[in-house]
Design a protein that fits this description.
This protein has 392 residues and is α/β, with parallel strands linked by helices. It contains 15 helices and 15 strands. A six-stranded parallel beta sheet has the order 3-4-2-1-5-6. Strands 9-8-7-13-14-15 form a six-stranded parallel beta sheet, sandwiched between helices. The longest helix is centred in the middle third of the chain and has 15 residues. The structure holds adenosine-5'-diphosphate (ADP) and magnesium ion. Magnesium ion binds next to α13.
């Protein structure tokens, strides 16, 4: 990564304005159900505390759409963060303004403050210049550790960097190093696995990975559109009519790099208690729908994954939320976990599937950014990364 990091700054007595991605899942009583995004931010926060900075943290949470929402306050995050850090976190009730500035002025080196949900202001998502300037008044140096928000050009992810020296945190650095190495300099064979609901979300990723990977294993709903493009019967499967032509073009160009499922789990309804069976992909009958890859496909993919030195996976192989259609995703997850390859998982649902399978610890890197990792895999420059200062 050619961006400056927190290690390039002399922090003593400086205020660090740190953009984190504390957009954690909450249950109905605002309890955090998964704190991985908080634990992943700890190395940067600890480093800044240990190096004598005043640490001013900020994040969005959910979609308050520019209005204050008591259900989306960052109070539960401050509490959990305080426990994990073993240090009190001073939670503020606003993210800009004179009261916040006064609290920051009153803080001592090593203190940790957390601003209120950034998206209580509509100006945040609009990347309003005056709003970015108001945020910039809270720091001497800006640190972006919010990889999960780096594909957005918002005031706290991009605009603020125009006013302050801007560097990457350790999580940002780790994400960019893993994803960047896979795309730029992968150990080969490099096997990419792509699934998920819709091909239209991921055409850019298919195109970019076809150019970089040695093989591309396809599963999930997006395989159906390829089947349709091949003229196969897909029954009532999810197919995107608009994307069939693109799928045809990709098939024409990809040669044997692109690997499609050979069998599938089909069901008579989209339901966990639907009647279901395994069929070869050319045996799908009208009235049935493909909801998972079949066992022969898992074997085929497992074989490719076992030989890989780099694996990038985005998108589940089937409707893993329902038990009868989870085995394809779990089978591929086990294969990835067993392989000695550097394994990288991007995508919110893919990460959830690997967690559900209990295999997260056997994966080299699970990205904290769903949308951001997808855009990165498409080969796009992320605005939150572009805004950071280059290394000299
Ligand atoms: P990610 O978040 O990992 O990028 P996506 O959001 O693209 O993944 O897709 C995940 C969704 O795709 C899951 O909710 C899953 O149920 C759905 N899905 C996977 N296979 C199929 C299929 N054959 N038919 C319908 N939906 C599917
Ligand atoms: Mg998703």
């Amino acid at each position: 990564m050619n961006k400056k990091t927190v290690q390039d700054i002399d922090w003593s007595g400086k205020r660090a304005l740190v953009r984190c991605d504390f957009n954690v899942p909450l249950d109905e009583s605002q309890r955090i159900t998964d704190d991985r995004r908080i634990t992943e931010a700890l190395p940067t926060i600890r480093y800044l505390v240990d190096h004598g900075a005043v640490v001013v943290l900020c994040s969005h949470l959910g979609r308050p759409k520019g209005a204050v929402s008591d259900k989306l306050r960052l109070t539960p995050v401050a509490e959990r963060l305080g426990k994990l850090l073993g240090k009190s976190v001073h939670k503020l009730d606003d993210s800009i303004g004179p009261d916040v500035e006064a609290a920051v002025r009153g803080a001592k080196p090593g203190d940790v403050l957390l601003l209120e949900n950034l998206r209580f202001y509509a100006q945040e998502e609009k990347n309003d210049p005056a709003h970015a300037e108001a945020l910039a008044r809270l720091g001497d140096v800006y640190v972006n550790d919010a990889f999960g928000a780096a594909h957005r050009a918002h005031a706290s992810t991009a605009g603020v960097a125009a006013h302050l020296p801007a560097v990457a945190g350790f999580l940002m650095q780790k994400e960019l190093d893993f994803l960047g190495a896979a795309l730029e300099n992968p150990e080969r064979p490099f096997v990419a696995i792509l699934g998920g609901a819709k091909i239209s979300d991921k055409i850019g990723v298919v195109e970019n990975l076809l150019a970089k990977a040695d093989s591309l294993l396809i599963g999930g709903g997006m395989a159906n559109t390829f089947f349709q493009a091949q003229g196969l019967e897909v029954g009532d499967s999810l197919v995107e009519a608009d994307a069939v032509d693109t799928a045809k073009q990709i098939l024409g160009r990809a040669g044997d790099k692109l690997v499609l499922p050979i069998d599938a789990v089909v069901a008579d309804r989209f339901a966990a208690d639907a009647e279901h069976k395994v069929v070869d992909v050319d045996q799908v009958q009208p009235g049935w729908r493909i909801l998972d890859i079949g066992p022969n496909t898992v074997d085929l993919y497992e074989d490719r994954i076992a030989k890989a030195k780099t694996v990038v996976w985005n998108g589940p192989m089937g409707v893993f939320e329902m038990d009868p259609f989870a085995e394809g995703t779990f089978g591929v997850a086990r294969a990835v976990a067993r392989s000695s390859a550097t394994s990288i998982i991007g995508g919110g649902d893919s990460a959830a599937a690997v967690e559900k399978a209990g295999l997260a610890d056997d994966i080299t890197h699970i990205s904290t950014g769903g949308g951001a990792s997808l855009e990165f895999l498409e080969g796009k420059e992320l605005p939150g990364v572009a805004a950071l200062d280059d290394k000299e």
